[in-house]
């Protein structure tokens, strides 16, 4: 089934060989049932469908833009019909040409943060999904702790030199949550100042880690992801693995309190081993304007090969939501309350990590 | 309360002239005086209707006499911070900052003045990767704009705040407009999108929030006719990405490495093709979106055009001949679909 999840962006170089792609990819456009498109699918993925249904219901403006997107597509109706016959390369191709045309003519919509849902669901998520399923073989549990249709702040531990943990959490919430939530992450400012990376982060729904943006997203009912350890967490040496770093100033707690949303602690095990960082070339990091320049057993001396993450087996556990609304929005100004909740979240994540580590027998096979 | 005598600055430009005309259409308004240092072009002066044109430079003390002798009670300062026509930088700064100072001094002196409406720009929020994605009226940028009309706008707003402190009896409405785009407006941005190959900064895609000039005029008119003091962001709903907008205009984006931008911008300015300052290039890096909730709730105005509609109106109204023709793309798509249907 793995090939069924790859959706090429450019239909030009698709010779029809990846025929199954449509079953997943078309999800952005119509609200069909999940299983009819991919009858052999081992896992249920209700996510994308609910998303598109919600979009359709979201308002007439969305509908208007869909019209805008489809007026040139003669194949739209064909695609609607042949849903019972399993994967069909005809409709896949028609669908891909429509997608290509929309990208070429700018007939898509982004939200005020620059989030491009269509591009994310049809291009980036399928790529990440293959890594999720086949490389890290992620097991996500406790997804019911993430609200179905309201805002929440997902707080997770950060590790692994490159933010693969954030990307995998996105896939877990999008594909395996009952209502398929899109994770909107808060990133460091260095991300948004970097060419390509910054634009990519915005297009896939990320925004700057600052309270106004976080609260705006949370009030809008989004799931916001935050990694409060920041660079201290993701760039820590291998010997410190699974030791949670300091949790900043607790800005994420006050954002959740002011928005009246719960905090969902999220513990990720497996990401620490993908790039064992045994050294740091500080002058080079300073030269390149990076927070650190990692040395792993394979990088930099193996070059590009060294950037391939080790295939550790991952577990992502979403814990019981921590209610912040009971303290009231004015408690967001009370440093005592803020630090208490911050510590509570941190301890929950640390304990969950220890429990998951105790259950894990080997790094690569779980 | 409907004003009796309104003075509008900057009537040789699109917004000023049209606003003067709109205000003159209202029979409850006694007189509308349009001031500028140069005559409005023929088609603009036709728009002004019964509004009177007074040729005066707002940097000249004459402006104080006009305001006091005509017993002007409402001043709409629509000439500041305009990026409609690229002019020499020094002259623009003088006009923006010193002109505003003079005008405010004249207003402060006249006992008749009860209301001041200032057209400012959302450029005061700057544009950087370290700022929140959406600005509301209370926010200040991490880096204050250090050059160009954005810096002027910050200074102008400072003087307007000072004026508000010295004359607390005057209602001050400060309107921060996003970039205007429409078929009849000529600005840096419209010229930029009219280039067949549109230079963009490599690796960046800005979020654009635009505003249709009709909406801008409606907001200014309402601010002049009603008492709505405060600072308001004025922008259309929705966001277009820069790359998306360029494609919607049928243009081809040409990404330029960041280090090459300044020399190329200089070349374009020299060749009189497009005038892009460093400030505007930063804007094209990151873009800027403002929160218009206050405009809706407190000012009571909802823009009729979305960003996308305003942009499409500009593209169709200008009759830009697309380099990439949507019809060609769509017929190609239909052709592919037909082939598929035949094959199965």
SSE diagram, text form:
The complex is a heterodimer of chains A (366) and B (344).
Chain A: H1 21-25, H2 34-37, H3 47-58, H4 60-70, H5 76-81, H6 89-105, H7 117-135, E1 139-141, E2 152-156, H8 164-176, E3 183-187, H9 189-193, H10 197-203, E4 207-208, H11 211-219, E5 223-226, H12 230-234, H13 251-259, E6 263-269, E7 279-280, H14 282-288, E8 294-295, E9 315-318, H15 335-359
Parallel strand pairs in A: 1-9, 2-5, 2-6, 3-4, 3-5
Antiparallel strand pairs in A: 6-9, 7-8
Chain B: E1 5-9, H1 14-25, E2 31-36, H2 42-47, E3 52-55, H3 62-69, E4 74-77, H4 89-109, E5 115-121, E6 134-135, H5 148-166, E7 171-177, E8 179-180, H6 188-194, E9 197-201, E10 207-208, E11 210-211, H7 213-225, E12 230-234, E13 240-241, H8 242-248, E14 252-256, H9 261-270, H10 278-286, E15 289-290, H11 293-299, H12 307-317, H13 326-343
Helix pairs in contact in B: 1-7, 3-4, 4-5
- Based on the coordinates given, report the CATH architecture of the largest domain in chain A: 3-Layer(aba) Sandwich
CATH class value of the largest domain in chain A:
Alpha Beta
Profile the largest sheet of chain B.
7 strands, parallel
- Uncertain segments of chain B are none
- Taking Cα atoms only, what radius of gyration of chain B do you get, to the nearest Å? 21 Å
What is the share of helical residues of chain A?
Answer: 40-55%
SSE run of chain B = EHEHEHEHEEHEEHEEEHEEHEHHEHHH
Largest interface: A-B, 44 and 45 residues
Domains of chain A, number = 2
Strand content of chain B: 15-25%
Domain NAD-dependent epimerase/dehydratase (chain B): 6-235
InterPro entries (chain B): Epimerase_deHydtase, Lipid_A_modif_metabolic_enz, NAD(P)-bd_dom_sf
Protein name (chain B): UDP-glucose 4-epimerase
Biased composition (Basic and acidic residues) (chain A): 42-54
